[in-house]
Specification:
The protein has 207 residues and is α/β, with parallel strands linked by helices. It contains 8 helices and 9 strands. A hairpin with a 5-residue loop joins strand 2 and strand 3. The longest helix has 11 residues. The protein starts with a helix and ends with a helix.
């Protein structure tokens, strides 16, 4: 079995409920093969080897072609929770697709982080046929998503609030790209009840 499929099957009720608390229903977790690894080795800021349980987020290309594996470390006191599999290309080479079964549409939303892209795609679109929602790993790894969507007619870039300046700088240089400023991270806004499908649609139309 594929590595990601094995990890997907290790998800317990506790793990599933945590992702549901983040706005991602169980059937979507299964669809996107989100998984769990009890012992993930990583290196801390001092380059010391550490271990932590971790959620696994496989990054698929179109038609679910596996490209790389991202981990969300669950241990206590970890500041940089998201890591890519050692030996595989990461966010500098790939972007995340919230629906790998569909080809890229002419209208695209680019989020900062896979979790935010999934929440946006599932909860904030009036219709999932309206947009493709993809993600970059961070504000510093925009190139794969920007290059892939360059010929799309309409692009929206939603970075985290602390990346506002970067978003507007990039939008000035790119064609058909609008920077969307939100006062909170988009998934936090949804979970707090501060935004819904209607509100999100109005924000995009107003940009």
């Amino acid at each position: 079995a594929e590595l990601w499929a094995e990890m997907r099957d290790r998800m317990t009720t506790e793990h599933i409920l945590w992702w549901e608390s983040q706005g991602i229903p169980e059937d979507i977790q299964r669809y996107l093969s989100i998984g769990f690894k009890a012992d993930k080795m990583y290196y801390d800021d001092e380059k010391q080897e550490r271990h932590s349980p971790a959620y696994t987020i496989p990054w698929f290309g179109q038609n679910f072609a596996f490209e790389t594996m991202q981990y969300r470390l669950c241990g206590e006191g970890i500041t940089d929770r998201y890591r890519f599999e050692y030996g595989l290309d990461g966010g500098g080479k790939h972007y995340y697709m919230s629906d790998p079964s569909e080809p890229l549409k002419d209208r695209v939303i680019i989020c900062e982080g896979a979790k935010k892209a999934i929440v946006t795609w599932f909860h904030l679109l009036k219709s999932i046929n309206d947009f493709s929602v993809i993600a970059v790993a961070s504000r510093n790894t925009l190139t794969p998503a920007l290059n892939t969507t360059r010929d799309c007619g309409e692009r929206y870039l939603i970075l985290d609030p602390d990346s506002q300046r970067k978003a507007f700088q990039v939008a000035e240089k790119e064609k058909n790209l609008k920077a969307v400023f939100l006062p909170e991270k988009v998934d936090d806004m949804f979970l707090a009840g501060h935004i819904d499908r209607d509100g999100f649609g109005k924000i995009l139309r107003a940009v």
